[in-house]
Fold each of these.
Amino acid sequence: MAAGAGTDIVTAIGAARILPVVVLEEPAGAEPLAAALVAGGLPTAEVTFRTAAAAEAIAAMSANPDMLVGAGTVLTVEQVDAAVRAGARFVVSPGFGPAVVRRCRELGVPVFPGVSSATEIQLALDAGLDTVKFFPAEQLGGIGMVRALAAPFRSVRFIPTGGVHTGNLADYLAHPAVLAVGGTWMVAPKLLATGDWAEVTRLTAAAVAAAAAGSQSQP
Ligand code: 3PG
């Protein structure tokens, strides 16, 4: 996102510390999913445009007044427009797409493009952004790679996503450059397909507890 713009959204994501990445096949699951996440203590979600249900799901989840809902896997300008029309408060992409970033800036919606290298971080900085998704985090070298990239880019905040789970999230969150971590583990496609909302809430609460325990153990 732009420095100075959308700071309330960045603050809210940073306060949540974990961004569930949702792949919902059926929009009917959106409302109970939002309730399950809120019950687990994580009232935020990135709803991905990997399925045709994305826009409808964003609208349905946004109807829950406790939820902060954004769009994920946004690859085209058309998807930016559809996401914003549906009520998405922020946009996430797996990579740095100049047209997507430009459209988000035009609309004034915070955008967190994915980066996997120093070059892509410089592209984000050139576009006026200071918060990026780091994707796919574990496959790229995990927290070691975040540390290495954060060293020269001192103004950049990262949202590492990809291979993150309850067992390793504290390592990421301990780094001051990490705003939050993202992932699918508490909203695994099988849980959504079977409507196992109790398990979504249980895994969400466990993730929130792990994040809280990690921050307590910091000096
Ligand atoms: C994403 O698009 O952010 C990833 O699919 C999330 O990765 P994960 O499934 O390993 O959490």
Note: The pocket of 3-phosphoglyceric acid is lined by residues 21, 94, 135, 161-164, 182-185 (CB under 6 Å).
Amino acid sequence: MAGEPQADCLFCKIVAGDVPATVVRETETTVAFRDINPQAPTHVLVIPRAHYPDAGTLAAAQPAVAADILREAAQVAADEKVDTTGFRVVFNTGSGAGQTVFHAHAHVLGGRGLNWPPG
Ligand code: 5GP
Ligand code: ZN
């Protein structure tokens, strides 16, 4: 069923506590944890507890949870004190765009200069 945990999904395992992660924030609907391979001084992933393969699918099925992800991303930026210097929220969607984990997630990046357009 849509949104149910998937046995072969790494981020579902992090939500369940079966794979360890450095969690920085949690809500009823979301978990935020540090990326294992950080690309910036602040690099935190914000994910829904529910399993959807990407951000658009999540927003279509559970728009309130998609909004929770954005609110939590901003809160992470504030907690990390990168809100004043600027930060980027990225949803890689599809393998051609670099998506490697097919459980929706926002990358929150900050703490260094962020070029535009991104690579
Ligand atoms: P994507 O490439 O799908 O947009 O982002 C997946 C992210 O998950 C990558 O930045 C990668 O470094 C991160 N990642 C992969 N495996 C793990 C893990 O086991 N723990 C954590 N904390 N992050 C992971
Ligand atoms: Zn999942």
Note: The chain is about 25% helix and 20% strand.
